């Protein structure tokens, strides 16, 4: 389903579905950055108050964790959104009469 880390392939390799017609967009990215940001900030506060590590240790801990968590969950969220668009036959906005 994916041609790269986050890019969809043009067609599904299993069933041949044309994925190019779907528009997942950047909605999942914004939601995941906010959600993971809140989790990481809470964890960073707990670590700071419990252990008081130097600032560079925070950088070494939280930047890679945030990046991996967002990229991994972005693949899941984009796949879920594509499946929802397919299931509900979502398309461009149109007037229904």
TrEMBL record:
User: Which InterPro entries does this one have?
Assistant: DUF983 (IPR009325)
Q: Could you tell me which Pfam families the record lists for this protein?
A: DUF983
| Segments crossing the lipid bilayer | 29-49, 55-77
Q: Transmembrane helix: present as a keyword of the record? A: yes
Ordered alphabetically, the record's keywords are: Membrane, Transmembrane, Transmembrane helix
Q: What name appears for this protein in its UniProt entry?
A: Uncharacterized protein (DUF983 family)
Q: Give the source species.
A: Sphingomonas endophytica
């Amino acid at each position: 389903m994916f041609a790269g880390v986050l890019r969809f392939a043009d067609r599904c390799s299993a069933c041949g579905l044309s994925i190019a017609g779907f528009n997942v967009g950047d909605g999942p990215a914004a939601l995941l950055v906010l959600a993971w940001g809140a989790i990481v900030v809470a964890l960073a506060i707990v670590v700071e108050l419990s252990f008081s590590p130097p600032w560079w240790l925070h950088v070494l801990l939280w930047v890679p964790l945030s990046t991996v968590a967002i990229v991994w969950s972005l693949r899941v969220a984009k796949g879920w959104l594509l499946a929802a668009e397919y299931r509900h036959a979502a398309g461009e906005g149109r007037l229904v009469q």
